[in-house]
Amino acid sequence: MIQGIIIYYFGDAMVLLETKNLSKSFDGLKALDNVNINVEKSKLTLIMGPNGSGKSTLINAVSGFLKVDSGKVLFEDKDITNKEPNEIYDYGIVRTFQNPEPLKSMTVLENILISERHIGEGVINALFHSKWIKKEEEMVEKAFKILEFLKLDHRWDHTSKSLSGGQMKLLEIGRALMTNPKLIIMDEPIAGVAPGLAHDIFSHVIELKNKGLSFLIVEHRLDIVLKYVDNLYVMFNGSVIAHGEGSREIERVLNDPKVIEVYIGD
Amino acid sequence: MEEVGKMVELISLILFFFGLYMIVSLSLNLEFGYGGIPNFGKALSVLTGAIIVGGILNRLLIWYFGVSGDFISASSIACYKLTEIIIQNPLVGLGVFLITIAMAMIAGAIVGALSILPSAKLREDYLGVTLLAISEVVFFITYYDVRIIGGYYGISAPDILAFIPGEYKIYAYTVLAIVTGLIIYLFLERLLNSPYGRVLRGHRENEDLIKAFGRDIMKLRIKTVALGSALAAIAGVIYVFYSSNVTGNAFTRVEWTFYPFLILLLGGKGNNKGVVLGAFLFVLIRILIEFYKFDIKELLHLPFEAVWIQYIFFGVLALLVLCYRPEGLLKEKPIYTPPIKSKLQN
């Protein structure tokens, strides 16, 4: 309550996700070295950096796919450090993967439906259709709305392996939307996607951001992504080396000699 | 007339084993076909059913009738005493059958749940090999330790259909196996055409994704393998009652693990109808080869013993299916729950 009032009066943004001195080593090699980032509500936060800088390690750690050695991950002020991915999902965090991960032999609709937990997934409940049919009807309706929003509705009954690379990325976003998340973490959502479709994907992202969703994104294609970003973190060798918030600050970060050096060095 | 009788007996034998393999293969289809869990320890579940009859039911009977002596001899006496009662009162036979099935399902579920625990640390190939190893260890202990189910000596089992005259008993067991198989088929069709079936297929395709979307995959695996093992244990019980005895070497990995996998490959994994078809074709071919193996050897001038024809044939069949029809005879279909079906019709 008090925090809300402070945010309202002082124009500060509400921090949704926060990492505090997050560290992770692999055989002595520091993949994350005291990383501190904030992801604010209804903002698009980008993490950039050359290959091997620790970006994917960071989002794997935040989403529970990797256990950290020290530091904390807080989500809405709750400690979610080293929790299992399925527990982190319960807080309203979903993620997409660097390579699209469609359930290939399943239809596009099934791919969307599977992202939300269902009462009919219990062995006993599954036998009694009356227990889950209403929920299933609601979910199917919702899934079709999402597919329409992503312009994938005409392919709902096709197997997901028949989708193009860009459509698979959209499917990943669709799956995330199905869960009513608070935060969507995306690992290279437009890698390998044609520029036109990449902008389409980000126009969907911005539309969702304006509806109150928050995004934490790792992406290499800065020519496309930078115009949509609210917060920017630059990582190198497992550390955050620069941070900017708002277009002017982001501009400053991009012209920071340290940032230019790591990119030229790359 | 004798020829006709032999033919009817042959058909009955085919249908009986069709029923048994339908049960085991459907249970494997739940675990592997839908869930992608490589349960190479399937034979262990069937063996569990056999242990419940030979090791537990027999001991209960020995205790109930107060029979003394060594376990193998006492079992024979206790089984004979129960058989005498069943001749007078068929309901006792039915009751013993149902109680044994219930005990086997519980034991199967426990064994299945425990055997899948290594999957917390192991994935696919390693898990498959570990499950195979667990199954083999139990198989050899059961075979060499005569105290469990008589080991290599074997042990008697009660004749639960003792009230049926001898020549008709094989038909009764055939009906029992087929009806049980069909009930399990209907049960699994209902169970799997649901969000549970969907999440199982999701687990098969990409377990990390399922985890990212909030599923506890260990719980999912445990309940799936527990159920699959409980169902397979039923086949072990029926087989032992049919044989009226149980020996440790009857539950080999070839018979009850590899052949059910072959049935899945042949019929089509993830498709219960395909598995039923696969089980029928497999049993038909197998028993025909068994009956006519010497004729086949002579006809084709085969340079090896007739006993190997079956293994060679099924080995080659598995390779051909994997190369030319990896999806099996009947391809897997999407899960259409009633709301999805109505979208399909619109």
Task: Set out the fold topology.
The complex is a heterodimer of chains A (266) and B (346).
Chain A: H1 2-10, E1 15-26, E2 29-40, E3 44-48, H2 55-62, E4 70-75, E5 78-79, H3 85-90, E6 93-95, H4 108-113, H5 123-127, H6 129-149, H7 165-178, E7 183-187, H8 195-210, E8 214-218, H9 222-225, E9 231-236, E10 239-245, H10 247-254, H11 257-265
Parallel strand pairs in A: 3-8, 3-9, 6-7, 7-8
Antiparallel strand pairs in A: 1-2, 1-4, 4-5, 9-10
Helix pairs in contact in A: 6-7
Chain B: H1 2-34, H2 42-65, H3 71-88, H4 90-115, H5 124-144, H6 146-149, E1 155-156, H7 166-192, H8 195-205, H9 207-212, H10 217-243, E2 245-246, H11 253-267, H12 272-300, H13 309-324, H14 338-345
Antiparallel strand pairs in B: 1-2
Give a brief description.
Chain A has 266 residues and is α/β, with parallel strands linked by helices. Chain A is 40% helix and 24% strand. In chain A, a hairpin with a 2-residue loop joins strand 1 and strand 2 (29-40).
Descriptive account of the structure:
The complex is a heterodimer of chains A (266) and B (346). By secondary structure, chain A is α/β, with parallel strands linked by helices. Chain A is built from eleven helices and ten strands. Chain A has a single domain (15-264), classed as P-loop containing nucleotide triphosphate hydrolases (Rossmann fold, 3-Layer(aba) Sandwich), CATH 3.40.50.300. A six-stranded mixed sheet of chain A has the order 6-7-8-3-9-10, with helices on both faces. In chain A, strands 2-1-4-5 form a four-stranded antiparallel sheet, with helices on one face. In chain A, a hairpin with a 2-residue loop joins strand 1 and strand 2 (29-40). Chain A is globular and about 60 Å long. Chain A starts with a helix and ends with a helix. Chain B has a domain at 14-252. Helices cover 77% and strands 1% of the residues of chain B. Chain B has helices spanning 2-34, 42-65, 71-88, 90-115, 124-144, 146-149, 166-192, 195-205, 207-212, 217-243, 253-267, 272-300, 309-324, 338-345; strands spanning 155-156, 245-246. Chain B has a two-stranded antiparallel ribbon. The longest helix of chain B has 33 residues, at 2-34. Chain B is globular and about 60 Å long. The mean pLDDT of chain B is 94. The A-B interface holds A 63, 65, 84-86, 89-90, 94-95, 97, 101, 103-107, 109-110, 113-123, 125-127, 129, 132-133, 136-137, 140, 144, 156-157, 175, 179 and B 187, 190-192, 194-199, 201-202, 205-206, 208-217, 223, 227, 270, 332, 334-335, 337-340, 343-344.
